Amino acid sequence: MKKITNTLLVLSITALLLGGCSQENTTTEKSFDSESEAIKAAMKDDSEISRIIGESPYVNKERIVVYLYKSEGDEGIGTATLTHKGKSITWTKNGPEVMVKYQQNYDVEVHGVVKSASGKKYDLYAGVAHRPHQTIDTQMKHDVKPKVDKKSKIYYYLVPITKYR
């Protein structure tokens, strides 16, 4: 029974992630002089953003940042796009955060699609690492090594979706 409950929970959270991350972003864009200024402002606007745990390289003047999110003792991740526009930088959330580590001593693995500010799509896998050399299976590869935040043990794997898949 517990296995069925956990499976239903994972499916529910995955559906939430897939539905939530595909929604259009209604956040008002604000311009900043630097990435650090944009990140500081985002963390000030949303006190539940704990810290940045990873980022992608710049592609077409935008970078995806992955941040740790804490709410009511639970932990998860969210993503945002940092976009260079002339000499300024904008921060745009890519959708709602998703919790993967709960204070009731359980965690979940999630997979969903994240859409950047320009509409570029990425597969995002996230969960909690239970082994020192955590690997995951994705839709395209097996035994992929995700990035793991050492402090929280939350992992993520972010990969662009190509049109040839």
Can you give a write-up of this model?
The protein has 165 residues and is α+β, with helices and mostly antiparallel strands. The protein has one domain. It has two helices and eleven strands. Strands 1, 2, 3, 4, 5, 6 and 7 form a seven-stranded antiparallel beta sheet that branches. Strands 8-9-11-10 form a four-stranded antiparallel beta sheet. A hairpin with a 2-residue loop joins strand 3 (62-71) and strand 4. The relative contact order is 0.18. Residues 1-26 have low confidence and may be disordered.
Taking all residues together, what is the mean pLDDT? 86
Structural class: alpha+beta
Helical percentage: 10-25%
Distance between the first and last residues' Cα: 37 Å
Low-confidence stretches: 1-26
Integer tally of domains: 1
Largest sheet: 7 strands, antiparallel
**Structure annotation, total helices:** 2
Shape: globular
Protein name: Lipoprotein
Organism: Marininema halotolerans
